[in-house]
């Protein structure tokens, strides 16, 4: 039972969708977790639902968490989302779109669900190469969380160890796009923008849009998602 079931964090973005495709390709029956944590728009929740349906995920859980009520971030409040015209202009510091402890909270919920359904495998699409500088996307964080998972749970104490799978951790965005396309991922179902227009059109200039466009350019592929600024980022 532990070898065939997995819990996958699914935001509906490029990375998490590719991660779900990898888990399915490796033969796992997937429970997908999507979090409604007070983000500024519902586009990613809608994208996650599309992706889960496309992959035939029968256990897709939307978990509602009041994170936005207790912490501050440009993704949960009215603050300006950083914009640039090229990837090289992205600030190298931790951006205002960082949500305090978000991945820790999400993985803790995923761990609880995994233990409850009898799974020892968690998949998360964190990336430490082409990313926005979030500290909870680093290898050190994943390693530390896996240690915690194997200290803090009944199943681990009884000999069933947990493993946090991060198949995208050391890949560039171009490598991720190529891998996803090889697995048949329909990236037209996904949503990555931090600051979309009211109709859901991606801005093309936030960190996430710029990195996504860089990935498709490096992969020599066409991004099926429309942008409000077609020329931004060289895409």
Tell me about this structure.
By secondary structure, the protein is of the alpha/beta class. It is built from eight helices and five strands, in the order βαβαβααβααβαα. It has helices at 14-25, 43-54, 67-70, 102-117, 139-149, 154-157, 173-182, 207-219, and strands spanning 5-9, 29-36, 59-64, 121-123, 163-165. The protein has a five-stranded parallel sheet, sandwiched between helices. The mean pLDDT is 93.
Query: What is CATH's topology name?
Result: Rossmann fold
Percent of residues in beta strands: 5-15%
Tell me the number of helical segments per DSSP (H or I, 4 or more residues long): 8
Q: What's the CATH class label?
A: Alpha Beta
- How many structural domains are formed by the residues? 1
Shape: globular
Mean pLDDT: 93
Relative helix content: 25-40%
- Radius of gyration, whole Å: 17 Å
**Distance from first to last alpha carbon:** 44 Å
SSE topology sketch:
Layout lengths: L4 E5 L4 H12 L3 E8 L6 H12 L4 E6 L2 H4 L31 H16 L3 E3 L15 H11 L4 H4 L5 E3 L7 H10 L24 H13 L16
Parallel strand pairs: 1-2, 1-4, 2-3, 4-5
Descriptive keywords:
single chain, Rossmann fold
Short description:
The protein is an alpha/beta fold and about 240 residues long. The chain has helices at about 15-25, 45-55, 65-70, 100-115, 140-150, 155, 175-180, 205-220; strands spanning about 5-10, 30-35, 60-65, 120-125, 165.
């Amino acid at each position: 039972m532990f070898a065939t079931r997995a819990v996958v964090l699914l935001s509906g973005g490029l990375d998490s969708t590719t991660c779900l495709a990898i888990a399915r390709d490796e033969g796992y029956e997937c429970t997908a977790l999507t979090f409604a944590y007070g983000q500024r728009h519902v586009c990613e929740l809608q994208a996650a639902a599309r992706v889960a349906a496309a992959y035939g995920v029968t256990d897709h859980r939307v978990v509602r968490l009041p994170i936005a009520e207790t912490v501050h971030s440009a993704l949960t409040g009215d603050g300006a989302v950083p914009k640039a015209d090229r990837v090289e202009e992205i600030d190298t510091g931790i951006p205002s779109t960082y949500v305090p402890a978000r991945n820790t909270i999400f993985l803790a919920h995923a761990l609880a669900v995994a233990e409850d359904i009898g799974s020892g495998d968690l998949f998360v699409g964190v990336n430490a190469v082409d990313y926005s500088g979030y500290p909870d996307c680093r290898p050190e964080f994943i390693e530390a969380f896996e240690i915690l998972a194997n200290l803090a749970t009944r199943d681990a104490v009884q000999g069933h160890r947990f493993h946090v799978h991060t198949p995208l951790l050391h890949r560039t965005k171009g490598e991720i796009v190529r891998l996803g396309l090889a697995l048949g991922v329909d990236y037209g179902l996904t949503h990555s923008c931090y600051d979309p227009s009211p109709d859901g059109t991606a801005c093309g200039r936030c960190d996430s849009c710029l990195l996504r466009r860089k990935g498709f350019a490096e992969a020599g592929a066409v991004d099926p998602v429309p942008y409000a600024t077609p020329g931004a980022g060289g895409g």
